[in-house]
C-alpha cells in the first residue's frame, strides 16, 4: 500500500493572534513551499475598517478570499497561506480554488490568544476586535479533516508537529 501524497496546499487558520503568520511561515519553510500571509491581501478599505475597530462583513471578505484563492491556484506545486478563514463558507470559497486544500486550525484558550494578540506591536488589528473574532469563528467540522493544534507550545514545536503530520518529505 502506498503512502498518501503529502499535502501541498495548506491553510493555517484561526482567530487573530493565534499564531498563523508565525507558524505558517515556519511550516512553509519546513515543507519548502511558498508562503502567503492573508494580511497582505486585504484592500486598503479592509485595513482601514479593522484599524478603526469595525469587524469585516462577508462582503468585505469575499474579494480578499478570492485574491488568496487565486494565489493558491497559481502556486501549482503547492503553498501555505495564513488566513483566519473563520467561517465554513470562507473555507469553502478557498476550496473552490484548490479542492485539495488541507486545514491546520491553530486553537487554544481565548485568554492566551487574546494576551498574545494584545502584546503584539505594530499590527493594524486592535484587541477590541477579539470578541468578534471568537464570535465569528466556526471551528472546522469533522468532515473538513482539519489538523487541530494547540498553540500553547512554542511556534517551532507547533510548526514541526504540523509538518510531520502533513507528511513532510
Ligand atoms: N506558539 C506561540 N508561542 C508564543 N508566542 C506566539 C506563538 N505563536 C505566535 N506567538 C506570538 O503571538 C503574536 C501573534 O502571532 P501572529 O501574529 O503570528 O498571529 P496571527 O494569527 O497571524 O494574527 P493576525 O491574524 O492578527 O495577523 C505574535 O507576537 C507572535 O510572536
Ligand atoms: O477575517 C477577518 O476578520 C480578518 O481578516 C482578520 O482575521 C485579519 O485578516 C487578521 O487575522 C488580523 O490581522
Automatic annotation (TrEMBL):
Which Pfam family name is an example for this entry? SKI
Give the enzyme's EC designation. Answer: 2.7.1.12
- Please indicate if the UniProt record lists Lipoprotein as a keyword: no
Q: Which reaction does it catalyse?
A: D-gluconate + ATP = 6-phospho-D-gluconate + ADP + H(+)
- From which residue to which does the signal peptide run? none
Going by the entry's taxonomy, the superkingdom of the source organism is recorded as Bacteria
Pathway field: Carbohydrate acid metabolism
> Sorted alphabetically, which keywords does the UniProt record give?
ATP-binding, Kinase, Nucleotide-binding, Transferase
The reply to whether Iron figures as a keyword in the UniProt entry is no
- Give the first-level EC class, as a single word: transferase
Q: Which PANTHER family does this UniProt record tie to the protein?
A: GLUCONOKINASE-RELATED
Per the similarity annotation, which family is this? Belongs to the gluconokinase GntK/GntV family.
Instruction: Kindly provide the name given to this protein in its UniProt entry.
Output: Gluconokinase
